From TrEMBL:
Protein name per Swiss-Prot or TrEMBL: Unannotated protein
GO biological process, one term: fatty acid biosynthetic process
SUPFAM superfamilies tied to this protein: Thiolase-like
A Pfam family hit: ACP_syn_III
Family, similarity comment: Belongs to the thiolase-like superfamily. FabH family.
Beta-ketoacyl-[acyl-carrier-protein] synthase III N-terminal domain location: 115-190
Keyword terms of this UniProt record: Acyltransferase, Cytoplasm, Fatty acid biosynthesis, Fatty acid metabolism, Lipid biosynthesis, Lipid metabolism, Transferase
Regions crossing the membrane: none
Beta-ketoacyl-[acyl-carrier-protein] synthase III C-terminal domain: residues covered: 244-333
InterPro entries on file: ACP_syn_III_C, ACP_syn_III_N, FabH, Thiolase-like
Amino acid sequence: MSLKFTPETANARILSVGAYRPPRVVPNSEIVGRIDSTDEWIQQRTGIESRHFASADESLIDMAAKSANIAIARAGLVAEDIDAVIFATISYPYQAPSAATELLVRLGNTKAAAFDISAACAGFCYGVALANDLVRNKTAKNVLVMGAEKLSDFTDPDDRATAFIFADGAGSVVIGPSQDIGIGPTVWGASAETRDAIVLEPSYLEYKKNPGKLDLGWPNINQQGQTVFRWAVYEIAPIALRALEAAGLTPETLDAFIPHQANDRIIESLVKSMKLPESVVVAHDIRTSGNTSSASIPLAMDALLAERPELHGKSALLIGFGAGLVYAGQVVELPNKPNNQSK
Ligand code: UT7
């Protein structure tokens, strides 16, 4: 049997981007003492010079709300115009209810559809894929895709393998209807056989199973850096090229490359493997933002547009990759310059 209705479709694009970085800038010099490291080592191995940490009383949702309000205003919308929120995060400290519904309350729009996704550093690109489909099928009109993390809460400052990498921030986009096709096909998937390469542990259940066992420690991110590095360098470039090709572009016709900001050496290696010409503007927000997982791509997008305003309305290849291991990439048309942009 077939249902009796005529499906309607629309085109979708990113209408706006909004970013929030907590004011506290943390240079490498503040990190190195506890991990027997140096500013020089961190800069050489990762490109990171400094990052932002939220204050103890600044929550994930505080950051997300600030980013969302900027994105909504730049789209020329108000909170009530948002009819779905997709919240990508791995650092919301509750299993339920969702971060997305807490954000709705903070935005003063408690009626929109809202849910979280857990795809770590690929979470934002997973969210863009879903939002694109929601708008294209007219399931929603204006979707807020949020990537926000307070990773300083889940990083051990004494862990030599992670303390210098992870950071805090929130970046978001509003995806809505458009005349032209503004979001290309998503190429996504997983390498789940390597799912223990990045883990946040112990789980909540371990505390229940082992009451009073304080030496279990606080849940923190553990990362096998070299395993993830090799995977990113060898596997991600061909996936990113597939996303480019799926959108009908080539390295020569692409305007910007905004990969997940995990390590500047990974970014440089991707640029080389993909043979991106010098005309492609590459985001290097990692240098002053660190690795903010799901927030890194929208934060980098916002920074790039502030630095290079001529990229408004131009094409950008996004590629997210991380814990799972999971990945997703797509070409997007960057948002046009907002009429009401204050900064
Ligand atoms: O966002 C999710 C996805 N995550 C990623 O993409 C992260 C991917 N991985 C990485 O970015 C890199 O693996 C790290 C930046 C985490 C580490 O860099 P690396 O070049 O892979 O370092 P390594 O673990 O191979 O260690 C190299 C050397 C070792 O010394 P020897 O054996 O060569 O003498 C380590 O002991 O660097 C030493 N080392 C350090 N030295 C100073 C390891 N950690 C540190 C440190 N400070 N923090």
